[in-house]
């Protein structure tokens, strides 16, 4: 199968509670280099989506269409039923929060507190609400002790946490995390996974752009594999990891647990984490003993 | 060519000379086969000359001739600068500066500054995207508000640039920058026909410039 065929055979999700809909979206950079080709995809309310792909696959370009920073060259992007063409990024961002990869590209205020307040004031929250939401964000992300420190003085992990806090402070319905695990230690990754679960329980749509398969796999998101500006595969994590052709095209390594259980022979569903794997192996061993 | 253009422009206020200078610059862009890119860069910068003309003509009572003259001077400098930067790579510039025996550190500072302009530009775009995503509208509000809106852009841009320069310094140190006092270059620039031509043309232009400045006319 060549790239085109793989892209065409990728299943389209059904139209239930769709919050974002891409219809035949093409996008070319101002210098004429195409970045997205014929993207049609939908994201639902309360859904966890992992967008995977090698560098330059078009992942970041795709998500920048959702809050209208980029507008499609052809086709349309609808967010909550409205086309992004005539809406500004600033307006759309009220409901679509993107946490960018590099914290240094956004922190500028004199204190952590005013950094969080900045977005809230831009969206016209009243003073009382600004105070409440800022306190909530400072507490939720354990930043309260830094609230008067300068954001630039924080460590890398703290800056990243602040970036999550300042976006989630205005409570967007769609949360997009662009490469959230880059440069993060295992403790930060664990915190991040907890955060994702918390947001999911609040029925938010979460889109994780990453090539960190080991981070995404335990969360068992719907996975979208991208390569060369196209969607190669779209389905549940279990479905997508079985699609070895798309995987190698997207230059992504399968999670180690999947590799291990593939070697062990087909045991049905791949375990999401080490505990599930342990149970599965124990079950096999008892079965073998009984034989 | 850039040097002689600036030289001539600073000395001469005769419209004829300026027109000859500009024509010659444009002719050189044809010779260098960069007409398209030159045109692009000029459509971006040339309005500056127009603004200078309008300002001088309408705001300050200097008269049509002087206003045209000043605008043409500016245009000549912009055109020759564009020509220079479109035909000369930072590497070549570095070698020329070495050839003049400028201090190596100074040369390096200049080369890095030139090379990082596009990188800084990309940074600025990314920062704008990030701040727009936080509800900032750069194009909205009165002048004061717009000025204040640049703070969320400028502060991270400067911070990123400073950080990068520190990292770059470390990276250069770890690659033994400065280990040799007078580094030699792997490539050596050679004068060829077009170099001789532009050099002689530049000298001729500059001589005319001096002559005009001294006597005010050709004969």
Properties at a glance:
heterodimer, A: 291 residues, alpha/beta, six-stranded mixed β-sheet, four-stranded antiparallel β-sheet, B: 219 residues, mainly alpha, 2 domains
The helix tally of chain B amounts to: 11
Distance between the termini of chain B: 25 Å
Mean pLDDT of chain B comes to 82
The profile of the biggest β sheet of chain A is: 6 strands, mixed
Query: What's the alpha carbon Rg of chain B, rounded to whole Å?
Result: 22 Å
Q: Specify the oligomeric state.
A: heterodimer
Number of helices of chain A: 12
Gyration radius from CA atoms of chain A, angstroms: 20 Å
The helix content of chain A, as a percent range, equals 25-40%
Tell me the domain tally of chain B: 2
Helix content of chain B: over 70%
Query: Which sequence of SSEs, written as H and E, runs from N to C of chain B?
Result: HHHHHHHHHHH
Mean pLDDT, all residues of chain A: 88
Describe this structure as you would to a colleague.
- The complex is a heterodimer of chains A (291) and B (219).
- By secondary structure, chain A is of the alpha/beta class.
- Chain A has a domain at 255-291.
- Chain A contains 12 helices and 10 strands.
- Chain A has a 6-stranded mixed sheet.
- Mean pLDDT of chain A is 88; it is low at 9-15.
- Chain B has 219 residues and is mainly α.
- In chain B, helix 3 crosses helix 5.
- Chain B is flat, with a radius of gyration of 22 Å.
- The two termini of chain B are 25 Å apart.
- The chains are: A alpha/beta (291), B mainly alpha (219).
- The interface between A and B is medium-sized, with 25 and 20 residues.
């Amino acid at each position: 199968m060549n790239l085109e065929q793989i892209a065409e055979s990728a299943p389209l999700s059904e139209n239930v509670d769709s919050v974002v809909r891409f219809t035949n979206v093409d996008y070319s950079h101002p210098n004429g280099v195409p970045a997205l080709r014929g993207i049609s995809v939908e994201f639902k309310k309360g859904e966890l989506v992992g967008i995977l792909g090698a560098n330059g696959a078009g992942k970041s370009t795709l998500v920048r269409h959702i809050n209208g920073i980029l507008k499609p060259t052809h086709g349309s992007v609808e967010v909550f039923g409205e086309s992004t063409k005539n809406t500004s990024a600033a307006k759309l961002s009220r409901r679509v929060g993107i946490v960018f990869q590099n914290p240094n590209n956004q922190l500028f205020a004199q204190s952590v507190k005013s950094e969080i307040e900045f977005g809230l004031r831009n969206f016209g929250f009243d003073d009382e609400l600004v105070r409440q939401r800022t306190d909530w964000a400072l507490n939720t992300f354990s930043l309260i002790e830094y609230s008067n420190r300068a954001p630039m003085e924080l460590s890398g992990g703290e800056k990243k946490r602040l970036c999550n806090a300042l976006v989630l402070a205005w409570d967007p319905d769609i949360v997009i995390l662009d490469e959230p695990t880059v440069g993060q230690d295992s403790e930060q990754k664990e915190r991040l996974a907890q955060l994702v679960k918390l947001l999911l329980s609040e029925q938010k749509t979460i889109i994780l752009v990453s090539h960190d398969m080991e981070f995404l796999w335990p969360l068992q998101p719907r996975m979208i594999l991208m390569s060369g500006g196209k969607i190669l595969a779209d389905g549940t994590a279990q479905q997508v990891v079985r699609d070895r052709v798309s995987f190698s095209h997207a230059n992504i390594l399968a999670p180690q647990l999947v590799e291990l259980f593939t070697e062990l022979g087909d045991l049905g569903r791949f375990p999401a984490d080490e505990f599930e794997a342990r149970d599965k192996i124990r079950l096999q061993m008892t079965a073998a003993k009984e034989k | 060519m850039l040097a002689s253009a600036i030289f001539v422009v600073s000395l001469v206020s005769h419209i004829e000379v300026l027109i000859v200078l500009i024509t010659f610059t444009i002719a050189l862009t044809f010779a260098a086969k960069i007409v398209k890119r030159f045109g692009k860069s000029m459509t971006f910068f040339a309005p500056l000359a127009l603004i200078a003309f309008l300002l001088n003509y309408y705001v300050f009572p200097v008269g049509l001739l002087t206003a045209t003259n000043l605008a043409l001077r500016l245009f000549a400098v912009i055109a020759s600068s564009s020509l220079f930067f479109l035909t000369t790579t930072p590497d070549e510039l570095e070698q020329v500066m070495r050839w003049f025996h400028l201090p190596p550190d100074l040369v390096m500072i200049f080369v890095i500054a030139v090379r990082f302009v596009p990188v800084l530009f990309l940074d600025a775009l990314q920062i704008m995207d990030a701040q727009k995503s936080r509800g900032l509208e750069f194009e909205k509000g009165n002048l004061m508000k717009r000025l204040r809106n640049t703070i969320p852009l400028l502060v991270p841009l400067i911070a990123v640039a400073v950080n990068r320069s520190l990292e770059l310094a470390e990276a250069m140190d770890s690659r033994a920058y400065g280990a040799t006092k007078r580094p030699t270059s792997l490539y050596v620039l050679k004068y060829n026909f077009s170099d001789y031509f532009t050099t002689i043309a530049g000298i001729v232009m500059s001589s005319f410039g001096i002559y005009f400045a001294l006597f005010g006319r050709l004969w």
